[in-house]
Amino acid sequence: MHNQNPYLSIVIPVYNEQETLEELYRRLTTALDQLGKTYEIILTNDGSKDRSSEILKELHHRRPSQIRVIEFNGNFGQHMAIMAGFEKVRGEIVITMDADLQNPPEEIHKLVEAIEQGHDVVNTHRLGRQDNWWRLWVSKMHNKLRAWMMPKLVMKDEGCMLRAYRRNIVDLMAATGETTTFIPALALNYAANPTEVGVAHETRFAGESNYNLYKLIRYNFDLVTGFSVFPLQVFTMIGMLISFLSFLFVIFLIARRLIVGPEVEGVFTLFAIMFFLLGIVLLGLGVTGEYIGRIYQEVRKRPRFVVREVLEE
Ligand code: UDP
Ligand code: MG
């Protein structure tokens, strides 16, 4: 059994990171030992198909009281891997980071200082981001779109996973049973005093990014639908606009009918009425969709992830 709760909890999702884990261990423990605070590192193996699982087991045996490993039963995604860690944290300050060393562990002290100054959520933006041009472009576009659709989410850079949270925020996040969620956005929902610091960014230590364009789009879609009903509202707006325009068209045709008299046997009148009805149908669909969307979000009570094994003391 562990006897005392650590001060810091580092939560790291791991998916096919066999080449980086040893280096991650070395740099992370060095940086944390230098900080001089008690800590634990929780690594969730998100169904890796390489040797990550064995390496994690070995790391746990090296420092059994400090390194805890959660083994998933399959691949449930980066955010669920972090969530599983959140459910188990023992520390007062919780820090999330990637396993691939794109977030340098040497930056952790900045986040700890910000929390100690009284902030409950510390977001980060990447200084000198090291990714390829299309990732940068997709991120830029997406950040713009998100700022427009969800002005409440104040965040310069949502992709950087090196972040720090106070324990009460983490407990709240772990208690939300949502399946598709985006942790930094969720945290901001609960934050009373968030802040943002710049952190260095590096190229991947080894291996390739797990995200391709399709996964990125899906992921961003999750963010948008998970935190706003904006897309459904657009649908409703279009329906409303079409109904209004068709209504004007109907008035116009009635006036013509009275002034000019019957034309082409009423075909256009028929069109006008059809468009008007079509507008109403679209509007109705939009409104229903809005409700179904909300219900769908609430009703999915599947297990978020399945844990096969936990290695801890
Ligand atoms: N990851 C995960 N499950 C996945 C995909 C990724 O746990 O299905 C982890 C991965 O091991 C890494 C982090 O999430 O620690 C970020 O992934 P990656 O570096 O591939 O993404 P990028 O940095 O390119 O956004
Ligand atoms: Mg990465």
The overall strand count is: 8
Helix proportion range:
40-55%
User: How would you characterize the largest beta sheet?
Assistant: 8 strands, mixed
**What ligand species are in this complex?**
uridine-5'-diphosphate, magnesium ion
Structural class: alpha/beta
- CATH topology name of the largest domain, in short, is Spore Coat Polysaccharide Biosynthesis Protein SpsA, Chain A
Strand order of the largest sheet: 7-5-6-4-1-2-3-8
Secondary-structure element pattern, one letter each: EHEHEHEHEHEHHEHHHE
Gyration radius (Cα, Å) is 26 Å
Low-confidence stretches: none
Query: Can you tell me the number of structural domains?
Result: 2
Number of helices: 10
The CATH superfamily name of the largest domain is Spore Coat Polysaccharide Biosynthesis Protein SpsA, Chain A
Report mean pLDDT, rounded to a whole number.
86
Morphology call: elongated
CATH architecture of the largest domain: Alpha-Beta Complex
What assembly state would you assign to the polypeptide chains in this entry?
Answer: single chain
Straight-line distance between termini = 5 Å
CATH C-level class of the largest domain: Alpha Beta
Proportion of beta-strand residues: 15-25%
